[in-house]
Amino acid sequence: MSSNSLRAAAVFFVLVAVGVAGRFLFHDTDQFYRPNFTPTVAVALFAGFYFRRMSVAMLVPLTVMAISNLWIESYGSWGVMVTVYLALCFPVLLRGLFRHGGETPVGTGLRIATGVLAPSLVFYLTTNLAVWCFQTYYPPTFAGLVECYYYALPFYRWFLQGDLLFIPMTFGSYAAVRYLAARSETQAEASPALTLSR
Q1: Which residue positions in the chain have pLDDT lower than 70?
Q2: How far apart, in whole angstroms, are the C-alpha atoms of residue 5 and residue 123?
Q3: What is the pLDDT of residue 198?
Q4: Which residue among 72, 79, 106, 181 has its CA within the 20 to 30 Å range from the CA of 30?
Q5: Beta-carbon neighbour count of residue 7 at 10 Å?
Q6: Phi and psi torsions of 98, nearest 5°
Q7: Could you give the CA distance from residue 113 to residue 109 in angstroms, rounded to a whole number?
Q8: SS3 sequence, the chain?
C-alpha cells in the first residue's frame, strides 16, 4: 500500500473516531448534554474536501452514524432514520466550496459561510419534515408542521453551535498540521547546507 493510501486510511479512521466520540460525549451525559451538538458535520465536510472520491467521503458520516447508533437510541421510524443519514451526507456535497485542485482549503467569505451555515439549516428543514411525516408526535396539518419546526428550534441552535465550533477546529487543525509539516521539511532541507558551511 502506498504512503498516500496509508495516509488516506489514517485520515478516514481519525475522522470516524472523532465523529463517534463526539456523538457520545454530548449525547448521554448530564453535564454536557447537548442534542445535535456534535462534530458529525465537521468530519463530513472535511471528508468531502479531503478525499478525491465522493463515495469514500460519503462513507465517513455514514460510518459515524452506523457505529454510534449501535448504542444511541434509534429514530422511531425508517423514514426519519434515512432522512437523518442523508442530511448528514449533504455536507460532503459542499466539497466544491473548498476544493480547487489543491490540498489547502480555500474559499471566499461567502463560500466559507455557506459551508458552515447550510448543513444545519438543511438538517433542520429535512429531518423535522420527516418527523412530521413519519411519526405521530404532531397532527398531520400545516399547524402541526409549524409546531414541529417550532419545538425543534433548540435542537437547531445546538446543531448550529456545534458546527460553528467543530468546523473551524477541524479545518484549523489540518492547516496547522500542514504548516508544521512544511516547516519541518524546510528545516530538514536547510540543515545539510548549514552543516557544510561550517
Answers
A1: 1, 27-33, 99-108, 188-198
A2: 32
A3: 41
A4: 79
A5: 11
A6: -120, -25
A7: 6
A8: CCHHHHHHHHHHHHHHHHHHHHHHHHHCCCCCCCCCCCCHHHHHHHHHHHCCCHHHHHHHHHHHHHHHCCCCCCCCCHHHHHHHHHHHHHHHHHHHHCCCCCCCCCCCHHHHHHHHHHHHHHHHHHHHHHHHHHCCCCCCCHHHHHHHHHHCHHHHHHHHHHHHHHHHHHHHHHHHHHHHHHHHHHHHHHHHHHHHCC
| CATH number assigned to the domain covering 3-189 | 1.10.1760
Cell of 153: 428550534
- Residue 11, Ramachandran bin (φ over 0: left; ψ between -120 and 50: alpha; else beta): alpha
Residue keyed to cell 396539518: 141
Looking up cell 489547502 gives: 104
Domain positions in the chain: 3-189
